[in-house]
């Protein structure tokens, strides 16, 4: 992948804070080099032949997050056309599923299964193993998720949806989009131990989204139903994580299940519901302490703002999770 063009990539694990994101912007390059640089960078996604009618006026940006076998990329680019031919597939096929989510304007996809116009807020699944032609006649913003087909439990059933534009403005589609946008936006804050967890959540959300498109694989339906419920609970908790009154009783009531059923959902997750909530609150505090814009806040106010009600207890939890006190952490990373 065009390492010379992408800033922020660290190929070796630098310990707890390995960088897992990269960024590219044409604005930092001479006009005559921009489109060629874009071609070099995007060939690290799914290789295709790309053309622009106005290469000297081309503008684009890429922000990528690598989560092991799962890669999430945010893109914005001028009008262009990309073609992945059968010959190019025979030469190199990474065997990946790809998901395109339009955030603005629209993109035309021509695949062997037919043509689709993916409007803002819509989602389309496709594969590196099938030819495609992609065109956008206006500047566009979007997200691409790439992963090996075997990582997606519903991949065989999903094949019937390849090339079909699916709505994503509400329900699980909106949840998926919101999560991916935030994932890329906050990429610089992730640590190496976060990667497996983020990868799992990404795959779970994609699976839940496909299940919501009425996939009928009965063998995976009960498991997928539980994943969908957990993801909805996670979204509910994320939006209320700073509320000190957040409790298992509140969460269970909001989702129409008993507290016992709520706990049962997390029996095999390796982390209890209370532990997951505590982890999310600590992560918010960690980000706040490392943010120079919040240096005016006392450590106690950071803790209270994120749902902790006891400063001493918060300090003990923080030291246990990150190996240093909140005070030392702020001094080291802000």
From TrEMBL:
GO molecular function: DNA-binding transcription factor activity; sequence-specific DNA binding
Domain HTH araC/xylS-type, first and last residues per copy: 231-332
Record SMART domains: HTH_ARAC (SM00342)
Stretch forming the signal peptide: none
One protein family per Pfam: AraC_binding_2
Keyword set, alphabetical order: DNA-binding, Transcription, Transcription regulation
Keyword Transcription regulation assigned: yes
InterPro entries: AraC-bd_2 (IPR035418), AraC_XylS_family_regulators (IPR050204), Homeodomain-like_sf (IPR009057), HTH_AraC (IPR018060), Tscrpt_reg_AraC-type_HTH (IPR020449)
Record-given protein name: Helix-turn-helix domain-containing protein
Organism: Micromonospora narathiwatensis
Upper lineage: Bacteria, Bacillati, Actinomycetota, Actinomycetes, Micromonosporales
């Amino acid at each position: 992948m065009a390492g010379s063009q992408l800033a922020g990539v660290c190929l070796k694990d630098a310990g707890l804070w390995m960088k897992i994101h990269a960024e590219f912007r044409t604005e930092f390059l001479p006009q005559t080099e921009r489109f060629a640089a874009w071609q070099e960078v995007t060939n690290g996604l799914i290789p295709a032949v790309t053309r622009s009618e106005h290469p000297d006026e081309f503008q684009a940006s890429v922000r990528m997050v690598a989560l092991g076998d799962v890669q999430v990329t945010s893109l914005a680019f001028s009008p262009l056309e990309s073609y992945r031919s059968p010959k190019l597939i025979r030469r190199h096929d990474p065997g990946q599923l790809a998901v395109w989510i339009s955030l603005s304007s629209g993109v035309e996809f021509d695949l062997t299964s037919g043509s689709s116009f993916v409007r803002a807020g819509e989602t389309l699944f496709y594969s590196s193993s099938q030819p495609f032609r992609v065109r956008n006649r206006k500047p566009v913003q979007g997200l691409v998720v790439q992963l090996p087909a075997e990582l997606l439990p519903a991949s065989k059933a999903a094949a019937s949806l390849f090339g079909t534009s699916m709505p994503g403005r509400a329900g699980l589609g909106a949840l998926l989009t919101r999560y991916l946008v935030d994932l890329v936006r906050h990429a610089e804050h992730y640590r190496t131990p976060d990667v497996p967890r983020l990868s799992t959540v990404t795959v779970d959300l994609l699976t839940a989204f496909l299940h919501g498109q009425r996939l009928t694989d009965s063998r995976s339906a009960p498991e997928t139903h539980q994943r969908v419920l957990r993801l909805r609970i996670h979204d509910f908790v994320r939006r209320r994580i700073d509320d000190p009154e957040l409790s298992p009783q509140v969460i269970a009531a909001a989702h129409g299940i008993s507290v016992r059923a709520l706990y049962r959902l997390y029996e095999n997750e390796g982390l209890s519901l209370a532990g997951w909530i505590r982890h999310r609150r600590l992560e918010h505090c960690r980000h706040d302490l490392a943010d120079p814009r919040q240096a005016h806040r006392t450590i106690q106010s950071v803790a209270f703002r994120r749902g902790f009600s006891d400063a001493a207890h918060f300090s003990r939890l923080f030291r246990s999770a990150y190996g240093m006190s909140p005070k030392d952490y702020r001094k080291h990373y802000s």
